[in-house]
Amino acid sequence: VLAQSAARCPSALALRRAVAELRGGAGGEGDGSEDVDGGFCTGEEAEDAAFEGGAGSAYATASGAGGSGGGGGSGGGEVSTEQALRQLRAAPGVLGLDIGGTLAKLALMQAADEPFLFPANFGETGQYHADLSFQLRIDGLWQEVLFLSGSTSLLERVLHRLEDAASPQSDPSKSGAKARRVVASGGGAHRLASLLLHAMKVEVVPFKEMESLVSGLAFLHAYGPEDEVFEVLGCGEQRQVEWPSPLFPCIMVNIGSGVSILRVDGGSEDPMHGTRTFTRLGGTPTGGGTFLGLARLLTSARTFKEALELAQRGDAARVNKLVSDIYGRDGSQNLGLPAGLTAVHFGKLVNPDTLSDFEEADVAAALLVMVTQASAVLARAFAQGVAGSQPSSNSQPGTASAEGRSKHICRSRSMPLDALNSPSAGSVLRAQLLGPAAYPGHRRTPVFFVGGFLAENPKSWDILSRAFLHMECGPALFLRHADFLGTLGCLGATFDSCHESDQTS
């Protein structure tokens, strides 16, 4: 009976409380003193949370300090979005939120030895990205960062349902119950703030979206896993690279529905409590929204996933006019241009004789090339403008920035090499990362491509990498956690807020 009851509790904390109650110590064991709205399992909720096959088959687990991030679980059990929200609301640690128009993303940082039982999939769209989990050490304590995501529209529907069902006593503005403070970015940070407060007792502190991205980059630079930064080779293979050194100034190209390009400079040396100076250099409305909108107009694809799958199967060269189509291969070589370089997007469709020589997958592929190359060309122009800038003094190898980073030893990453303090060794590494210098002392500007458009989109990674290779502006750099940059920035800001509260209390 005890085993069956344990399997029905939706969280490790709920299980601990149930055990405490059985021992006659109800409410007296640590976090178990929270109320039901905090997310703990009552007898009635336990019946609703019963899983087929037991909790072990339905949950993915995050490891303690002795192992790597948890692996995804499988099984027949299901957890509703409401149950997942209640569990996260009650979870110990620090939360960061990024509530976009399509996806809501969450990062949870808690003690590495704190058990985290969570389903690999929950609700209709929810996912626990166990493969992205990593561990770090802050103030001498091991922590683990965990990542989840789900549909924003579904989240909003569930919150409305919870708000309608909430009694006046559960309203923090009426009952005096303490709300959990969470920093959040994205449009939902403003639009859903009141809803989160009344439905979940979560007080949202809005964080400017671009600032959250920059803060997320600084967080990953200081604490991220060893294989965080990678480039894509001509064959499509991913190759891990070290962080550029010096890192600042760098360019961040955020490709979402539209495209924003930021210049990031060095700021505070503390990646958790400090800030970074950044400037929005420009952008373009030709982004992921353009790709999906035109794909829906010109093909049978109705979702972003369907459009990407079409593009993967297509050949853009059957639609686009290439340099070789105009000059031939020998002529292209004489001009010093790659024969496969796009000369005119959709140029072959101008000729009525070629209108039957392509399929809709080719159209999707051509759309992907057009949108992705637009970002590459714009990024290159801005990177050239920044290239002559002097790196920030606190980001030079061997100075306070590098020393500060070495204090935060992370089990899952390699620290900057002492050899970077050697000018010769440092110059070799920088040349490998940033490409050949145009003249002695010239610095290539690191360019990072991030944003939801690039998530699980290797074809665009390849297009960007080839474009940068052709334009001789150094490698295009990508991040494993690129889609969670804003979330990590908010996580750091929440941690900072909690840290200040602890010091003043």
TrEMBL record:
UniProt GO MF annotations: ATP binding; pantothenate kinase activity
Cellular component, GO annotation: cytosol; nucleus
Origin superkingdom: Eukaryota
UniProt cross-references to InterPro entries, sorted A to Z: ATPase_NBD, Type_II_PanK
Region annotated Disordered, chain positions: 387-407
Residue ranges with Polar residues bias: 387-399
This protein's UniProt keywords: ATP-binding, Coenzyme A biosynthesis, Nucleotide-binding
A GO biological-process term: coenzyme A biosynthetic process
Protein name per its UniProtKB record: Pantothenate kinase
Taxonomic path: Eukaryota, Sar, Alveolata, Dinophyceae, Suessiales
